[in-house]
Amino acid sequence: MRTMEHFRNRRSVRSFTKDDVPEEVIAEALEAGNLAPSAGNLQARDFVVVRDHEKKRVLADAAHSQQFLADAPVVIVCCANQERIAGYGPRGRELYCIQDVAAAVENMLLYLADAGYGACWVGTFNERKVSDLLRLPMHVRPLALLPVGRPAAEGRSPSRMGIDSLVHFEEW
What we know:
Blueprint: H1 5-8, H2 23-34, E1 45-50, H3 53-62, H4 68-71, E2 74-81, H5 89-114, E3 118-119, H6 127-134, E4 140-149, H7 163-166
Antiparallel strand pairs: 1-2, 2-4, 3-4
Helix pairs in contact: 2-5, 3-6
């Protein structure tokens, strides 16, 4: 029987050790991301893996000086590919590719936590600065930054609203 511990153990990690993250771990995290569902199975998401210290520093600056991005051994930039989803029209470009990226990010976060690594879903950043830094094509939009590394300390479990406050049956 599966337990919910796999999900309860995931934390947003913002402090990392100096230990490197092996290529195999990043490759498996990316594979986990790509195994997420996507609209029409078009997989309208792309990933840029950043290890270069100077680029991570610029990413941290673009993310309103969130220094932990520069301190992480790896940052995965998760992007929506609006060209790949174009067949779905405006709804595809404005929603489906965002959902595709979100599903991939969650899969990666769960994989990394299970593998003993920490990560944090960072969504506040200047998209233009990130796009320019990484030379993203015009049809590719960065949506999330995932700093990845070994946690420097054990994270705490944030409180959650009771499920009864969030679930409605049949109608609101």
